[in-house]
Design brief:
Blueprint lengths: L2 H6 L9 E9 L14 H14 L2 E6 L7 H13 L3 E10 L6 E7 L14 H10 L18 H10 L4 E5 L8 H4 L2 H10 L6 E5 L4 H18 L9 E3 L15 E5 L4 H9 L1 H4 E2 L10 E8 L8 E3 L4 E5 L6 H11 L8 H11 L5 E8 L2 E8 L5 E4 L2 E2 L5 H4 L3 E3 L3 H7 L6 H4 L3 H32 L2 H20 L7 H41 L8 H60 L7 H63 L3 E6 L4 H11 L7 H10 L3 H6 L4 H6 L4 H13 L1 H5 L6 E6 L2 E2 L5 H13 L6 E4 L7 H14 L6 E4 L4 H5 L4 E8 L2 E7 L4 H10 L3 H16 L1
Parallel strand pairs: 1-2, 2-3, 5-6, 6-7, 12-22, 12-23, 17-21, 21-22
Antiparallel strand pairs: 1-8, 3-4, 4-5, 8-9, 10-11, 10-13, 13-14, 14-15, 15-16, 18-19, 19-20, 23-24
Helix pairs in contact: 2-3, 7-8, 11-12, 14-27, 16-20, 17-20, 18-19, 18-20, 21-22, 27-28
Amino acid sequence: MNFDQRCCFAGNFSGGARCVRVDLHLHTLADQEFKYSSKNREDFVRAYIQKLKERAIRIGVITNHNKFDEEEFEKLSEEGVKEGVLLLPGVELSVNEGRSGIHILVVFSPEAARTVHGEVNSPIEKFLANAFVSRPRFDDQGHPCLCALNLEETIQKLDEFQVPYFVVLAHADQDKGFFKELKGSRIKDFLKSGFFRTKILALQDLAYEKYKLDWQMWVTEIAREEGRDAINYRPALIRASDPKKLAEVGRRYTCLKVGELSFEALKFALAQHELRLQPGCVFPVQYPHIKQVTADTGKMLKEMEVFLNPDLNNFIGIRGAGKSALVETIRYVLDLEPKADVDYKNGLLQYAVGSGGKVALDVYARGQSYRIERIYEEQPKVYREGEYIPHLHPREIFPVVYYGQKDLQKQVESKPLRMELIDQFIQEPLSAIRQQIKSLEEKIKEKVNTAEGLQKKVARKQEFAERRAALEEKIAVFQNLQIAGKLKKEANFKKDELALERVESFFLNWTDGLNTFKNEASEFYTAVFPLESAENPGLFKELKAILEDLFIFLNGKVKDLEQAIQSARKEFQRIRESFQAEKEKILEEIAQIKRQINVSFVSPDDYGKLIKELEQVKVLQKELERYEGKVRELRQQKEQLYEELQRLWHQEWRARNEKAGEVNSAQNLIHLDVLYKGDKEQFLSTLQNIFQGTGIRRDRLEKVARCYQDGIEILRALDERERFLSFGFTEKEWLKFYERAREQEKLLGLYRVPDALEIKYGGQLISKLSLGQRASALLILLLSFENIPVIIDQPEDDLDSQTIYRGLIKELLKLKRKRQIIFATHNPNIPVLGDCEQVAVFRFGDNQIEIDEGSIDHKAIQQSIVEIMEGGREAFSKRKEIYNQWIS
């Protein structure tokens, strides 16, 4: 395997930059201190690489004492390539510094290990020869000797060879270590020299607390003297194995985020260790993220496959290259609605995916992997480990924050839409509250409808009173003519007939009610089962038996009732038939009495009818009294439901307010206030719609909106006539207001006055800021929430460069390892200064999108940024100048 293959074998990771284990201090069989039972070099090479693989070490540096064995390194490196382990050449050099010398690790780029054609020695060997000159590298016992150079001279000599390298101070607080061998004054000289963070990139195993405190004190002192930030003097603190036998190889390591397995990526990660070094082990990412997007279409996304990183992802390319098409495709698969330019985005989707096209997202959420697929113009489908899960919507397992082009701008400008900024991050608690609200609203509507129906009946009270008076007056005529007594028997039979009709109605209602109860009980019983428990099977078995016994008991009682009703109804029919027979007996008698009555202006036939109708009116009047009581009871029930509804509205506000508090405590730039029912403009607009056509002036309604928190409070205050008159209402206006409010109780009482979200950016209300500053505030706000993925197309629109530097980039760097961010962008500062883990470079040709992927570490990606994005080269220059400032 040639040199180019060896140093470039890893290429990019499929998902961009990732955390890997690195061990920068390794010894091998070529070092006298390293002990291995077998002298067989091939066995050793295989065993050594397997030990690194077993310990999950992806980058290692061979740093034998004062020597470099090119042949051994070649064999180890080749074996490492086979197992996905990158080995870099290096040396542990004994530098002539301090009381008895210090050990440093010099890590070289791979080309330093290669003997160039025509040369005798590799650059590493040449350096070692210059470092020792005529001095021996080892004493008689094989212990490493000091080279001829001190630390400063060593760095100067390394620079002369013009081979990429960096220095690590080995076992810094142990014998031959930087802190053990040097005094404070000498260490401060090195701090002033400028070597730290430029040449010396790391301190190995600085564990002794006293040295840590001394180091911090010296760094602070020198930084103050030179007027620089202390961060400029702090190299990475790493751990490494420094093995003396095979079992110790890789036992101590450092976790670094790198975009590829290469010397350049390793060096850059150490140089930006605040961003790239992860304490402890490399744990799998636990927050939700999209792992991969694949498309099977005949359109512009034909055969597309994009791997995404759990952290920052940037889609870059010239306009029209397809970035927005992919963003909108992801949005479509997740079944999210665009907020602006709906026709354009749907058209773009048809052009990108097209009829029959299928796109799939492989996602991680809730501790497991899912696949979400969608065929164009069909519903999305969710799979878990290859198994389709019917009726499961993507948002239930994988909520995201999505903003397409101009969506963010629309939300900036729309006051009602701002609340979505919070609501989209608390969907689960809000959903639970809103389900309760919906159920409560149905109950209130039912009560209002019932009350309205009863109120219409109660409103006939005067009508029945008048009808009764008229009937009694007509009956009085018969009494005055002294013929009522003669017709009394018929009248009594009419009353009895009416009573029998009521009994018949009673049996019908009982039968219907019993059937309804039986059906509902059966449905409820079926809904309870199956009753199973993995943890408490005995208890659930007992509960099942109890419910079964209860159901059997109820069924028995229902059958008993049905039989009792049927039996009673038979007896009723018998009695009714007997009554009918008695009635037949007196029909001739009554007819004879009527023939004897000789009054021209009244009909004897009318008396019985009048008596029966009067009895019916009296029954209805009694029912109205019962209805009036029911209306009063319904009003009390409605009041309790309204109170519960207001409690849920407040609970909804509390969930929003708690989330706002979390955002406020997480950063200092944005401050949120959620004002309970604070959108009075919307409340006033709703009142105007409800009372439209009544002639009530707007200023009257404004006072009502200011005085009362919601429609429920208005309904409660309707009888307070004097209060409304104090608002300027005339008597006529108040009556109209009263009547319309009662008519529209469901609309008025169930209207939720919106909460208002007040946003301050840098201490100023967002309404007083420019459009660019508003967009900046909302964008930073979006990045401050939770850990769900954020997908935004061109977030830099309307943002000024200072906002990107001081706000957006700083937030992106803080959010590393917390949430997935996907930006389609034209601004090079976002991927470059944001230290992007995965950059997807879009190119469009032959009606198809082509995508190259890699982290910001990858040279080809860097070159694409410079070529495609205006200001790309300046962005990389800016990174070199100021990256320490954003971290601090």
